[in-house]
Design goal:
The complex is a heterodimer of chains A (about 375) and B (about 350). Chain A has a domain of about 260 residues. Chain A starts with a helix and ends in an 18-residue tail after the last helix. Chain A is about 70% helix and about 0% strand. In chain A, helix 3 runs parallel beside helix 9, helix 3 runs antiparallel to helix 12 and helix 13 runs parallel beside helix 18. Chain A is an all-alpha fold. By secondary structure, chain B is mainly alpha-helical. Chain B has a single domain, classed as ABC transporter involved in vitamin B12 uptake, BtuC (Orthogonal Bundle). Classes of the chains: A mainly alpha (about 375), B mainly alpha (about 350). At the A-B interface, helix 6, helix 13 and helix 17 of A face helix 6, helix 12 and helix 15 of B.
Chain lengths: ~375, ~350
């Protein structure tokens, strides 16, 4: 039984890796096979995987995860400015710094659970956001956002005698410039590593503990288990995932702004996780990819394009149809996002993965033989 | 001394808005047990009731300007002025207070529709799901407003009578020169009246008595043969109206834009938590207290000691309260105290 599970996991990881690495091929037909977009899939996939470790596995709904994303971004850009344009230190420092922040915030927030926990994390995230805009301007460069400049010191690069070229330097991995497909594959490999770590966590005794906390924390406390270290560890790990995602954002586009920390950005990662399926392994990645894909399509549409798309309709019909749909595309992408959010929570709280599982079991007519990833309705720890 | 009094006054009008929104949030949480993240959006909708009324009243006709004789000049004259003359002008001048009359039925309807159409399906579901679905609703509402009214703030002038500043220095015997905008005083008075009305309604009417009983023990009230569900629906409507009115009257202070609701929502939640989840007097007290605290924190003297304190003071207070006294200032023992 144990070995069979282990074999299934290896197959799952292998399939996942192949699927991620071959994205440029199989995303071709739906027009998503260009590096910028696939990078986003990978980065937000990581963000959502991390969030899922806290929300999906442990049952704590954090509304402040974007703060860690922002911290990761800022740290990475500072590493580019002060140390080197190599991405390895940037990613490591970004992840670690987010981990430190998560440990501090988690230590306080995790004294409460349920809705109080959500509000505490929200309060901390808003504090970071407000501070980034006001007092911390020397560190964050306020509204303009933190940017690279040619005259930045970059101590290590200088010590190694890298000759600065004209124009802004480009982030690189030992000489490979992080642009186009190189950037994508770098993110993709980190995504695969992140996925495998999450899988290992889910299968480990630690993961069992997290799901025990999710299902009944009181009972654990009654039998004498101190749950605090486990929840804190989950919080820090998920904060580090967010920091990693944030530093990858800086790697692919070296600037950082405070708007990444706003609580609506935290809401977006919640949506990704729920859309895919909170508590499942593949769900968050799927949710992140779906949202980023449709964001890309929807925001590029505009009314003129819609009008031409509805050419086949008679004029009197085409115009109102286009103007109604026009509300949902382009600038109105957020409207679509909000509506999808509501529909998912109302009708499909288990997310896409649960929907797929239901379909599979319908076809197989063996309802108890669903996929190995345990699908549970997300509910907070009370 | 003057400065301190001014800061208290400054805090009171913002505190009034916090208190009104937090009051509605607490009412909804206490009765229906629902965490409503769309409450800020209701505040915003109220503000846009005022905007729509103003735009409606100032619908204008382009007519030829007779005073210019050299060339053909046109000017926009509101229909109201054409029809009623000076009286029309007065109506336009008072568009913000008049919007209250529009906002009450509109917000009541929106509130009832929200409760019947969406919220009631979420009574039995977890708080996390309630937060998520109302968060989605808030996004939808604010994006609709953005699609209709655009993304820029739309300034709303207060009526001329209260447009200037009051010389409160004379009022309190502080000497000349201490002035304070009239409209903020109006807002403070207005919020006190609304809060008083809500409390009187709950305290002195049979309906209010039943609602209070239901807040204590919903099941028993239901067993007594009272349709508590219907009353709670109406309470939701009332909470929507209170938030809407807070929004209407706030428009001359802060030009409304589509995301003002979100900005106020987070703060109002903090207010509810500080005051005590489910405690109405707590929500009001905490609203005013935090408003005053915030305005003290934005004094230059204070900012010189602790830079940036004005940005985070409210959240800081919330963190401390949640850790030290999780039930909040006036919360009942054991309510949501996990």
């Amino acid at each position: 039984m144990q070995s069979q599970n282990a074999r299934q996991d290896i197959i799952l990881s292998a399939l996942f890796s192949v699927a991620v690495l071959t994205m440029p091929i199989w995303l071709q037909p739906i027009g998503a096979a260009y590096p910028d977009l696939m990078q986003k899939f990978a980065i937000f996939g990581l963000f959502a995987i991390g969030f899922n470790i806290l929300f999906g596995f442990t049952g704590y709904l954090s509304f402040g995860h974007a703060a860690f994303l922002g911290v990761g971004s800022y740290t990475a850009v500072w590493s580019f400015k002060l140390l080197t344009m190599n991405v390895i230190p940037a990613v490591i420092f970004g992840t670690l710094m987010a981990g430190i922040f998560a440990a501090l915030i988690g230590f306080i927030s995790l004294r409460r659970s349920g809705i109080y926990f959500s509000i505490l994390t929200l309060a901390f995230a808003q504090m970071s956001y407000n501070l980034a805009y006001s007092v911390l301007t020397p560190i964050t460069n306020g509204e303009t956002g933190l940017q690279l400049r040619q005259q930045d010191p970059r101590v290590i690069d200088q010590a190694l005698g890298v000759v600065p070229e004209a124009g802004l330097p480009v982030t690189n991995l030992f000489g490979f410039e992080m642009q186009g497909y190189t950037g994508f594959y770098f993110c993709a490999i980190l995504l695969i590593i992140g996925f495998i770590i999450a899988l290992r966590i889910a299968r480990s005794p630690f993961g069992m503990m997290l799901s025990a906390i999710k299902s009944n924390q009181n009972r654990l406390n009654y039998i004498g288990v101190n749950t605090r270290p486990y929840t804190l560890a989950a919080f820090v790990i998920s904060g580090m995932y967010a920091g990693l995602a944030g530093s990858l954002m800086a790697v692919t586009d070296p600037l950082a702004g405070a708007e990444r920390m706003q609580w609506t950005a935290s809401g977006e990662v919640v949506l990704m996780t729920i859309l895919g399926g909170a508590g499942t392994l593949l769900g968050p990645v799927l949710g992140a990819a779906i949202i980023k894909y449709f964001e890309n399509i929807f925001s590029s549409f505009h009314e003129a394009a819609l009008l031409s798309a509805f050419d086949f309709l008679p004029d009197w019909l085409a115009e109102p149809v286009a103007s109604v749909l026009g509300l949902f595309v382009g600038e109105g992408w957020h409207l679509t996002l909000g509506a999808v959010f509501m529909l998912i929570v109302i009708f499909m709280p288990g997310g896409v993965i649960e929907g797929l599982n239901k379909l599979v079991s319908l076809v197989r007519r063996r309802p108890d033989d669903t996929a190995p990833a345990a699908v549970q309705q997300p509910h907070s720890a009370e | 001394m003057d400065a301190i009094l001014l800061q208290i006054l400054n805090g009171l009008d913002k505190g009034g808005a916090y208190a009104l929104i937090a009051l509605g949030l607490t009412l909804i949480f206490g009765t229906l047990g629902v965490v409503n993240f769309a409450h800020g959006a209701l505040f915003m909708l109220g503000a846009f009731c005022a905007v729509s009324l103003q735009q409606l009243l100032t619908l204008s006709k382009r007519i030829k300007d007779e005073s210019v004789t050299f060339f053909d000049a046109y000017k926009e004259v509101p229909y109201l002025k054409i029809w009623f003359g000076d009286f029309g002008d007065t109506i336009i001048d008072y568009s913000v207070p008049l919007a209250i009359i529009l906002a009450i039925p509109v917000m009541l309807l929106i509130g009832l529709a929200m409760e019947r159409g969406l919220i009631r399906f979420f009574y039995k579901r977890s708080h996390a799901e309630q937060i998520l679905v109302t968060f989605g609703l808030a996004i939808v509402l604010q994006e609709i407003i953005k699609a209709i009214f655009g993304a820029n703030p739309i300034p709303q002038p207060p009526p001329d009578v209260v447009a200037g500043s009051a010389d409160i220095g004379l009022l309190f015997g502080l000497g000349q020169g201490v002035v304070y905008p009239w409209w903020r005083l109006v807002y403070l008075a207005f919020s006190l009246v609304v809060i008083g009305l809500v409390f009187a309604f709950l305290q002195f009417t049979t309906f209010g008595m039943v609602v209070r009983a239901g807040m204590q023990d919903r099941e028993t009230v239901g067993l007594l043969g009272i349709n508590i569900e219907r009353r709670f629906t109406i309470v939701f409507g009332i909470a929507a109206v209170v938030a809407g009115l807070a929004g209407v009257m706030y428009t001359p202070i802060l030009p409304p834009d589509y995301h003002m609701g979100m900005d106020f929502l987070v703060l109002s939640f903090v207010v509810v938590v500080v005051g005590g989840m489910g405690s109405l007097p707590g929500a009001v007290t905490a609203g005013f207290l935090l408003g005053i605290l915030q305005s003290f924190a934005s004094m230059t003297e204070v900012k010189a000691i602790i830079p940036g304190i004005d940005q985070i003071i409210i959240y800081l207070v919330a963190v401390v309260i949640l850790l030290v006294r999780p039930r909040g200032l006036l919360g009942r023992k054991g309510v949501m105290e996990s």
